[in-house]
């Protein structure tokens, strides 16, 4: 069965990288997208979604409904509104994010139990669920007692219309190391600061972009250590981020040592290689699903600032290796991670599931 028309449904942000990549990829693979989206706050968004979807359902022959990220709270409404197959981009777990990574509430709290309920039953209601790595699928299967055949892996990738190489941006007197993020624990920004401290007398500067949960903690640590080799930059518009990446010599991924850090490949990894920059990130099961040490990235142990500092010095002093992993990462992105490639793989996987198990996919 060919997928011709899908309805993107939910409270998603069309500009968010994950949604942007999938929507563009579907369109480039000649799948028509009809959007049923509400960004209205409060309960009004549910009423707006109901009104919009009933109109769409009446006027269009949909092959499937695609509940885009974030969608745990929306899955229940989607299933009430349609018996069509629902593809749910779970992408990340509320329980994993809020409880295990950010530790906003204790594991025994009502919130933790509520998030577990949402994660489990939103997936149970879907016909198929998408996650970004096999390691992440393992977490969902084991933590929420879900069948593995419910899931498909779709790498994050990024939008190459936004992120692409630009050699003109680079003009550094010293080696420039780039990091951007929201300072959540999985990113391990503290280890970047400690690596910067180890390198304080080296010819290396850091540019760190963003704000978030651990920003003040990390900034205070840098001030306590008396670091002068970091340029702190506030949040920048998404469209301007490639400029900062392209003027850097090395880009950093994530270095946290917790469950979520081990299960994901972050946006920033794909954004770096899309700009043909050498990437250093933590060595995890998730990263090894797409990247290979010394071929298209440089891997270091998670939570180890000394190893990170040594990797930066090694790549600074080994220009050939730096160029090798930069070009290898860019080749990987162009051959496996473009939006149309990722989405074509997804379409093929869905069609195979559809053909082999039509009854279950509609349930």
How do the helices and strands line up, and which of them pair or pack?
Elements: E1 5-10, H1 17-28, E2 32-37, H2 44-59, E3 64-67, H3 75-81, E4 86-89, H4 94-101, H5 110-125, E5 128-131, H6 134-144, E6 151-153, E7 175-180, H7 189-198, E8 204-209, H8 215-224, E9 230-233, H9 241-246, E10 250-252, H10 259-263, H11 267-274, E11 279-282, E12 298-300, H12 305-317, H13 319-337, H14 339-356, H15 358-362
Parallel strand pairs: 1-2, 1-3, 3-4, 4-5, 5-6, 7-8, 7-10, 8-9, 10-11, 11-12
Structure characterization notes:
The chain is of the alpha/beta class. It contains 15 helices and 12 strands. It has helices at about 15-30, 45-60, 75-80, 95-100, 110-125, 135-145, 190-200, 215-225, 240-245, 260-265, 265-275, 305-315, 320-335, 340-355, 360, and strands spanning about 5-10, 30-35, 65, 85-90, 130, 150-155, 175-180, 205-210, 230-235, 250, 280, 300. The strands form 2 sheets. A 6-stranded parallel β-sheet has the order 2-1-3-4-5-6, with helices on both faces. The chain has a 6-stranded parallel β-sheet with strand order 9-8-7-10-11-12, sandwiched between helices. β5 (about 130), α6 (about 135-145) and β6 (about 150-155) form a beta-alpha-beta unit. It is globular, with a radius of gyration of 21 Å. The two termini are about 15 Å apart. The model is unreliable at about 360-363 (pLDDT under 50).
Query: Strand percentage, roughly?
Result: 5-15%
In sequence order, what are the helices and strands, one letter per element?
Answer: EHEHEHEHHEHEEHEHEHEHHEEHHHH
Determine the N-to-C terminus distance: 17 Å
Q: State the secondary-structure class.
A: alpha/beta
| Overall shape | globular
Q: What are the segments in which pLDDT stays under 50 over at least 5 consecutive residues?
A: 358-363
Provide a count of the helices.
15
Taking the sheet with the most strands, its summary is: 6 strands, parallel
Oligomeric nature of the chains: single chain
Radius of gyration computed on alpha carbons: 21 Å
Strand order of the largest sheet: 2-1-3-4-5-6
Helical proportion? 40-55%
Rounded mean pLDDT is 94
| Strand segment count | 12
């Amino acid at each position: 069965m060919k997928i011709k028309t899908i309805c993107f449904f939910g409270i998603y942000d069309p500009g968010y990288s994950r949604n942007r990549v999938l929507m563009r990829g579907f369109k480039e693979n000649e799948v028509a997208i009809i959007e049923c989206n509400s960004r209205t706050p409060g309960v009004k968004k549910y009423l707006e979604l109901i009104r919009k979807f009933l109109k769409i359902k009446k006027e269009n022959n949909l092959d499937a409904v695609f509940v885009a990220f974030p969608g745990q709270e929306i899955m229940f409404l989607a299933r009430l509104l349609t018996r069509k197959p629902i593809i749910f981009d779970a992408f990340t777990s509320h329980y994993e994010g809020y409880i295990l990574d950010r530790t906003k509430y204790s594991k025994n709290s009502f919130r933790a139990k509520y998030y577990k309920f949402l994660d489990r039953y939103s997936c149970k209601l879907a016909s198929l669920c998408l996650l970004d790595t096999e390691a992440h699928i393992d977490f969902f299967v084991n933590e929420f007692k879900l069948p593995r055949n419910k899931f498909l892996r779709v790498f994050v990738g990024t939008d190459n219309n936004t992120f692409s190489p630009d050699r003109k941006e680079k003009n550094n007197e010293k080696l420039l190391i780039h990091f951007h993020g929201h300072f959540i624990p999985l990113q391990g920004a503290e280890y970047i600061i400690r690596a910067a401290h180890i390198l304080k007398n080296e010819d290396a500067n850091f540019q760190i972009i963003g704000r978030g949960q651990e920003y003040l903690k990390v900034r205070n640590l840098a001030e306590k250590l008396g670091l002068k080799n970091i340029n702190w930059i506030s949040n920048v518009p998404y469209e301007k981020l490639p400029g900062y990446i392209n003027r850097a010599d090395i880009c950093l991924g994530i270095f946290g040592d917790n469950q979520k850090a081990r299960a994901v490949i972050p946006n920033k990894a794909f954004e770096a290689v899309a700009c043909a920059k050498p990437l250093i990130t933590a060595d995890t099961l998730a990263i090894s699903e797409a990247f290979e040490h010394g071929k298209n990235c440089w891997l270091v142990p998670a939570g180890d600032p000394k190893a990170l500092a040594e990797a930066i010095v090694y790549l600074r002093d080994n220009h050939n290796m730096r160029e090798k992993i930069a070009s290898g990462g860019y080749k990987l992105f162009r051959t496996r991670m473009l939006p149309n490639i990722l989405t074509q793989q997804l379409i093929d996987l869905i069609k195979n599931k559809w053909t082999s198990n039509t009854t279950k996919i509609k349930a």
